[in-house]
Write a structure and sequence with these properties.
This protein has about 290 residues and is mostly helical. The protein has 2 domains: about 1-160, UbiA prenyltransferase (Tetracycline Repressor, domain 2, Orthogonal Bundle); about 160-288. Helix content is about 80%, strand content about 0%. It is built from 15 helices and no strands. Helix 3 packs parallel to helix 7 and helix 14 (about 230-250) packs antiparallel against helix 15. It is flat, with a radius of gyration of 19 Å. The model has no long low-confidence stretch (mean pLDDT about 95).
Length: about 290
């Protein structure tokens, strides 16, 4: 048994990023620090469910993954794992993750996580991905939920700050993923995936990236103006957003699309740095 194949089936880099945003959702609540063990057990449950969702995505996409350079080395596409083993492993993750979330957090958290699971692994993977150029925009909702999930796991209630963080991730998703779609345009076109650059053109996609980047900036300012964050958050996130907007504007005149992977890679760092800044600001405000 190749353990790395099972790990790669879960898209570990994506699960780690999702888990970090869920963890920050927990850390922003003072109740986390009096219930650290149960909170972390809930986080583990979430991570297992996220991994099972990613695995199910690969199960459904196993044939198309064989034809794309970016995905042909995935465990199922390459033949490292059998379909039966993948299904058994995915089911085990789903069951254990659901048990941990329900036992250590609450029903609300499990329901929100289950919604994200169904939305990504079934609605997005089976339907949205293949039928609309807005696939990433709509499908991005599932990846935007972790801060809210982390918050509700600790508090068993929905609050304004985690909802704002959900909106930040939702608006970040299109300018994060579309550069990758442009970079792999021929592969998506060959597989018949109607990504935005294929359906509406590269130029239109780049213009919409700027719109989303500007909306992202405005949304990320909202927690500060609602008095939920402080000046460290304001300065840090403003710097991140202004550079992101600069990259998107520069991309508009990049006819050879040389900036594609630079923007994609920065957007991943953006998300990590954004949530780090949000938590550092929380600590500063707590100890003022």
């Amino acid at each position: 048994m190749n353990i790395s194949s099972y790990i790669n089936l879960c898209k570990p880099k994506i699960v780690i990023l999702l888990s970090i945003t869920a963890l920050v959702g927990m850390l922003l609540s003072v109740d986390f620090y009096s219930n650290i063990f149960t909170s972390l057990a809930s986080l583990l449950g979430f991570a297992l469910l996220a991994g099972s969702s990613a695995a199910l995505n690969q199960i459904f996409d196993r044939e198309s993954d064989k034809n794309m350079e970016r995905t042909k080395k995935r465990p199922l596409a390459s033949g490292e794992l059998s379909l039966v083993n993948a299904l058994v492993f995915t089911s085990a993750l789903l069951f254990l993750g659901s048990f941990l979330l329900l036992y250590y957090s609450n029903l609300m958290t499990l329901l929100i996580t289950t919604f994200g699971f169904v939305f990504y692994s079934l609605i997005y993977t089976i339907y949205l991905k293949w039928t609309t150029p807005q696939n990433i925009v709509i499908g991005g909702l599932s990846g935007a939920l972790p801060p809210l999930i982390g918050w509700t796991a600790v508090n068993n209630e929905i609050s304004l700050l985690p909802l704002m963080l959900v909106l930040v991730i939702f608006l970040w998703t299109p300018p994060h993923f579309w550069p990758l779609a442009i970079d792999r345009l021929d592969e998506y076109k060959k597989e018949g995936v109607p990504m935005m650059p294929i359906a509406k053109g590269v130029s239109r996609t780049k213009k919409e990236m700027i719109v989303y980047a500007v909306l992202l900036f405005g949304t990320s300012l909202a927690p500060f103006f609602y008095g939920l964050t402080g000046y460290f958050y304001l300065i840090s996130t403003s710097a991140l957003n202004l550079y992101f907007i600069y990259l998107c504007i520069s991309y508009l005149s990049d006819r050879k699309n040389k900036l594609s992977m630079k923007i994609f890679n920065f957007s991943v760092k953006y998300m990590f740095l954004f949530f780090m800044a949000t938590y550092i600001d929380f600590l500063i405000r707590i100890y003022e």
